[in-house]
Amino acid sequence: MNARRLRVELAPSASLAIALVASHALAALCVFAVIRGVPGAFGAALILALGVTAAWSRALLRARSSVTALELTDTAVEIELRSGERLRATVAERRYVGRYLVLLPVRAPLRRTVLVTRDMTDADGFRRLRIWALWGRVSGVAGKQLAA
Q1: Residues 102, 130, 63, 89: is their CA dihedral positive or negative?
Q2: Burial of 8 by CB count in 10 Å (0-12 exposed, 13-18 middle, 19+ buried)?
């Protein structure tokens, strides 16, 4: 049995929250520009509210269903929610790994995508998360390498 584990604690990301609200505000402005009057204002307000809700839940990690930690092994992922609930999850094979963010599409038991930005964790944790997302393995050093 492989005992290697990686725990990544997530912190709120102000930059992601600003980006989410700004992109939704721009979309709301576009809706209002196309649909004038009360219907356009109502649609724009709904889109802006959706952006604030997404920022509250996904970027600021304030909702009970927000992911606050990931525990990774070579074979499994465990997600810890803000409510304290821990879920053993299945992550899809296709993941996005970039310089500033990692997207992990979760398939079971809940269906959502976990977005982790560079400022949500420390540099080493983010680097190791990127390696895990690319290769599906927790990085480590073999015992014989340490003895030398």
Answers
A1: positive
A2: buried
Checking if the pLDDT of 142 tops 60, the result is: no
pLDDT at 15 > cutoff 70: yes
Those residues whose C-beta lies under 8 Å from the C-beta of residue 22, and which sit 6 or more positions away, are: none
Count how many Cα atoms sit within 13 Å of the Cα of residue 143 in the half-sphere of its side chain. Answer: 2
pLDDT at residue 1, rounded to an integer? 41
| Letter string b/e over residues 92-129, b meaning 16 or more CB atoms within 10 A of that residue's CB | eeebeeeeebbebebeeeeeeebbbbbebbeeebbebb
Question: In the numeric block, which tokens belong to residue 83?
Answer: 């409510």
Q: Which residues of 13-27 are buried (b: 16+ CB within 10 A; e: fewer)?
A: beebbeebbeebeeb
